Target: LacI family transcriptional regulator
Amino acid sequence: MKRKITLKQIAKELDVSISTVSKSLRNSLEIGEETRLKVQAFAKFYNYKPNNIALSLKNRKTKSIGIIIPEIVHYFFSTVINGIEQVANENGYSVVICLSDDSFDKEVLNMEMLANGSIDGFIMSLSKETQYKGDFHHITEVINQGMPVVMFDRVTNDILCDKVIIDDKAAAYEAVQSLIDNGRKKIALVTTVDYVSVGKLRTDGYEKALLDNGLPFNEDLIIKIEDVDTCEITISQLLHDRAFDAVFAVNELFAVTIIKTASKMGLKVPEDLAVIAFTDGIISKYSTPSITTVSQSGEKMGNKAAKMLIERLEAEHVDDDEENENYTTEVIETHLIQRESTD
Amino acid sequence: MKRKITLKQIAKELDVSISTVSKSLRNSLEIGEETRLKVQAFAKFYNYKPNNIALSLKNRKTKSIGIIIPEIVHYFFSTVINGIEQVANENGYSVVICLSDDSFDKEVLNMEMLANGSIDGFIMSLSKETQYKGDFHHITEVINQGMPVVMFDRVTNDILCDKVIIDDKAAAYEAVQSLIDNGRKKIALVTTVDYVSVGKLRTDGYEKALLDNGLPFNEDLIIKIEDVDTCEITISQLLHDRAFDAVFAVNELFAVTIIKTASKMGLKVPEDLAVIAFTDGIISKYSTPSITTVSQSGEKMGNKAAKMLIERLEAEHVDDDEENENYTTEVIETHLIQRESTD
DNA sequence: TTTCAACACTACCACGTTTTCGTAAACCAA
DNA sequence: TTGGTTTACGAAAACGTGGTAGTGTTGAAA
Model:
């Protein structure tokens, strides 16, 4: 078990100074060829690699970016990570991931932990609790310290920073419109509780689509679900009354539960009940029937978010004083993926 | 935009030495109460937090662990990460994630990148390509440098280190046995190509269960699939011939594809065809019919792996010279989750 | 012989922290 | 006053790196 070799050890071994070694390895012309080659050979033999920590300390750059997301066991979020990681890796960055578990405290803790030098910038999606509380001091603080933050998907207007989102409202509108186009009249919306920003926006799109088509906007058809487990009961009741002939669910878990419930009750999808879900994921694809979804390319979001962050990081390098904080909000386009749950 | 404050700045501001500040903040009795409180108040006001990078350099500990997995958009792996993250966080560690994309080169690159001081230890699952090549020099190298490695799920006997696995053979045996118990005679095995270690083991368990029950082991019933896309064609052909009445699939993607194919052909699951899948995931749960699976608790694996790594990290602290490398291999228990795809 | 440039390398500083050692001042006992 | 102890703090090294500035030697031109 040999510890990693350092410049100092090489220097000692070859009886030259540390700086000579350093310069030799960087091929500086200051160093004579003989010495240079000797050092390089030695370094290669002992597999010298500069210590990242020391470099980070010196350069005040860690070349790693922090990701904070509510949970990782979630198709959408893992695709986003995938997207971030791709771009990060291409640019020589590593990725540090922390999970907030949808808890405000954990989000704050994780941010503080990473903000103390561990990373160069953040990419994050807000936890439910944070959105509920509306307390973003931990984020502003980080930003004030000059650490760039890019938010995605679950964002807030209360924070000025780069953002990557999809046009939730427009996408919801499109989905509901397609249901209407297929002759559906009573379209239910199955959504989460309001404080999750995206839930609100999708509801808005749903409402607008109905009104634009002269259909009544009926509060009773908006089913707010906090917990997936309660979904089945609520749904079966409404299905029993045949209260609707189509469902727009804000996520695929709701959608698949609805389909399963409907099937149990002898209803046919899509004949008796058409279903569209937000967030294209693995469940929709493999459900029976497979579910028509609004694609929400997590990978693209991740790509974009990483690009924005890295651009800002490298730009900062150049002009440090000039505070040109022209934050942008990037909108990733969505489209409907037609599958078996709609006709 | 104020940069984070440092000890030096505090020292300068209060006109004391850096050491005085450091000691005051650590509540050293060496420092007089007046000075101590003054420093503490000042530090609190400016929200001083020690710089992690500097601490890492000093302590030769980064308090972060590196995870290298083939892909993240994969239910099993994300549950493992979840498990790792839980334990890591509890013990004050962060988690750095790199994806090998099932590529040998990326795996090597990522390891080298992280090994240069960025992390204290690795938790990893081998990429397919690495298993195929059988080249593990990058891992031995890291281990030789004194950096602990814990492997999980896709492991190799060629490396001496701590491991967390499930008893793939026994689990496969149990699954196949349960099919036999239900009166199935012609049980097909749908598996991946051999070089993925777990695929081999599961095949062994399958074979043993058949032989132990006096059933013929028929090579024709072992269907090796490299790509999910080709799965459907292969399967439909065999289903057409009614070559088997039960399927044991080594992952849930295969299983759900088989079920879908069978349904299309008018076969009923489980009446005409019973299906069991390895790797309990989200698809199995929400498939129609839902799929009986061998649970493979990724979370538990992650927990265990993290525990083992951290234990070793903290232990190393104590006895540095004494090389007590009593590596252990932890076996996580599995059990069958009965669902609708079997009777 | 002096001067000056080129060469080959070394010294030193900074990054932020902790820790060991040192020491000045104050106090006390003899 | 002397010697010794305590109190309260400071200086400096160390972790590993990289850049700037500096130093000493050599050889050649003036």
